[in-house]
Amino acid sequence: MSGERPKIEPTRRQFVTRSRLGCSNCKDRRIRCDEKRPRCSNCVKMAKACSYGPAKVPLRDRRAQLQSSDQAPWIVQNSSPQTWSNAAAKVSVTGEGRNPAPWKFIELERMNTFDAFPIMMPLRSKELLHYFRQVGEAFTMPSEQQPEQQLDDCMSSAVQDPFALRNMLLIAGIHYAWNLGDLQTFEPTFLSHKIQAIQLVNEKLSSPSDGKDYMSCANYIITLSFTECCLGNFRVAEAHLRGLMRFIDAHRANEQDLSSEDAIKRELTDRYLILAYNFVHSLKSRLDDFLASTAIVENISRDSDPKGLARVLHRWHIQEATGLAFRLKTIRLFPYFFSSAIVTKYPRHVDVSNILSCLAQITKQHDARFAGSEATYDAHSRYELWDSGGPSRLLSAVVNAHLDSISIEPSLVSQANPGFVSSWSGFCVAIGMYLTSVLGIWNQGSPAESSLLYHVLLILKQDLQTSWLNFKARSKESQALWIWKWFAGALTIAHVQPNDCNKRFRELSVEFLSLVEHCRGVIRQDSEHWPEVKALLHRVVWPHELPKEMEVIEFWNNPILGLLSS
């Protein structure tokens, strides 16, 4: 035993877990911290202030968390169904405070773990997109026939299309600005996508021979015009539309036969343009009438600083009879004009009776302007037309008619009582011309810029020519509507100044006015029967008081001569 050496156990190193949660003073001195709160023992001995930084999750714990492929792109809060009155109360905006519509910001750390978007989504892009999707549910009235599944399909298809997604983000920014009064924290995000859109448009303009995606690029320009108009920058909005006309001319001059898919895209682009044509002219006139009717807003005109004008725009949103939520609900449907993936068939004709009801109400208020003496007519009575909400109802009816024309099944109202049936594009062009040249409400009664007017007049002429082919098979209401659309276009041509009539426009005008022979096949052409013509127009919508009615009668007798004399 004495020869045996005692067995010595190897020393085992005692492993001590290293904590990274110590105070900042102990970390700087590289000494162990006992992590006592509110002050550790070391800081107490040295009489120093003790502070702890934000806790960091250890690497081993982070690895145990869900990977990016296991996480959803964002969290959607499932809220209980709300009634329209409750939803409207939550999104109402008052002069003293701002109560945003109910929605939940998403944690950036969780959002950034998964990204399957076709474009870069910098800053708070995903939050803005989520706002547009979630807050819109609060603006949907339960009584409406619009299926929620169709809206989901529209937004889902837009998210997969780089052009549609950026357009939708810009529209979402406008929706937020109109809801809260300004862009607030979303302004950098909005400007980022706006700059990207402008850069893409400039790239396309630098290579006009490249026809790929030119209609998507045209939609960019229209959206940019919308955004500038909604934020009070009317000059830039109209400049975008003028640039769009040159862009369209450059591409459509050499346009070949379109495939069915491209024909649908072109129709949607034309519709988006027509919507902007009416929207910009409406908002311009409304601003002028608002500024003329109030003494509170001083030293502000249409050319003032856009931010100041944006505040003015928000003020009338709050005061209007229809309420803010009504217009926000309509704006949320704009993606239906540029999300072509959900439209599988060429848009069909629609019953426009609801739109005509809105026009009739506006026309009635127009007649009230001239019912009294000239002394009683002032700027305040002029703005009552806007404050009553008539133009906002018209915009909503126009957008919903577009949805009906591209939906899988037409609305029950259209099936039960066809009434006044027309293509959406031709009729909405005629609406703008009627409100401009007949009532003098849109664009302060002045015709649109010549190149824009040429394009919309061409759309109306093609619609009249196409619908004339089966004119006799149409209902009496639709026949009267055909004549009404021709009158709206003809009076617009009559109001164009000679200096604005280039050769191309004059040739189109002659072709358009020549369609009067079709009208005379329905109405006797004797001049003493103008009351009969007027009665036919009243079956659609027409003012009882028209200051320049004698000029209209002369133009009806010989429209071609009227054009040449101008």
From TrEMBL:
Residues 22-52 form the Zn(2)-C6 fungal-type domain. One of its GO terms (molecular function) is DNA-binding transcription activator activity, RNA polymerase II-specific. Keywords: Nucleus. It comes from the Eukaryota. It holds the Pfam family Zn_clus. This is Zn(2)-C6 fungal-type domain-containing protein.
